[in-house]
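Example S7 (structure tokens).
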């Protein structure tokens, strides 16, 4: 194996975190901002590029960093190493309510494709790169553009799904149609494309967007019930407006409605 062999445990229900157990000299890489806590003896190091152990010098590091820019991520990742004898733990937290999914890349042929903001952390040695779409429809209307992230190697990776997680194992020729934002990721065998919803009333008044993702088996697909874009949209729609009143509060009864629902601001 080229990736470090790590042990882990996932805690929590709605706001989960994953605790990685590191043997001496073992390491894990993570996106900036996902770190939660670590034991004494774990060394944190900022690395340039995608965190893999490919040997190619500075040029490979530049290419890896360039790929991360294309996916909208930072130039740098953070690596955590156990520098002392004995086992040490380091933990990473979910960015918003949902589930953390553990994936062993050896079970998926060494490659998993995911949304660019789904990756949380991985064993040191896993390559975090980009997956270009070869289809115009997918690139223009797929919600993630021409690019998704690909995780390659033979180690453990952890991705985050918003809300409740659904796992679908597709048989050859079996088709699943999904809202583009609800895709967490899928195995490399899955054929992914984007289709027009169709129908004038569906397009104008449906409220579900003009396109959905078409996933065809064989392969495994992970679906999330609450994409971050949907969560953020609901929060913004109900954020307080000018004057401190949230959208919809007392919309018919005005101040009387605020009194009735216990909002006694004066």
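Recovered sequence:
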């Amino acid at each position: 194996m080229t990736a470090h062999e790590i042990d882990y445990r996932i805690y929590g229900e709605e706001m989960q975190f994953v605790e990685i157990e590191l043997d001496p000299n073992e390491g894990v890489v993570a996106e900036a901002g996902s770190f939660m806590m670590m034991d004494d003896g774990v060394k944190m190091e900022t690395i340039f590029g995608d965190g893999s152990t490919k040997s190619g010098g500075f040029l490979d590091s530049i290419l890896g960093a360039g790929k991360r820019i294309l996916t909208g991520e930072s130039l740098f990742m953070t690596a955590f190493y156990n520098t002392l004898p004995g086992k040490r733990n380091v933990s990473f937290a979910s960015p918003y309510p949902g589930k953390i999914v553990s994936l062993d890349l050896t079970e998926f042929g060494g490659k998993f494709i995911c949304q660019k903001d789904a990756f949380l952390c991985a064993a040191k040695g896993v390559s975090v790169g980009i997956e270009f779409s070869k289809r115009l429809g997918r690139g223009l209307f797929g919600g993630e553009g021409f690019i998704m992230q690909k995780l390659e190697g033979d180690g453990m990776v952890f991705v985050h799904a918003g809300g409740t997680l659904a796992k679908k194992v597709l048989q050859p020729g079996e088709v699943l149609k999904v809202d583009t934002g609800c895709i967490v990721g899928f195995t490399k065998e899955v054929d992914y494309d984007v289709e027009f919803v169709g129908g004038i009333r569906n397009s104008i008044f449906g409220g579900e967007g003009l396109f959905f993702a078409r996933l065809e088996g064989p392969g495994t697909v992970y679906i999330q019930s609450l994409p971050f874009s949907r969560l953020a949209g609901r929060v913004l729609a109900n954020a307080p407006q000018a004057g401190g009143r949230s959208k919809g509060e007392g919309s018919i009864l005005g101040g009387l409605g605020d009194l009735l629902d216990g909002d006694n601001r004066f």
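Notes on this example. The two ends are 66 Å apart (CA to CA).
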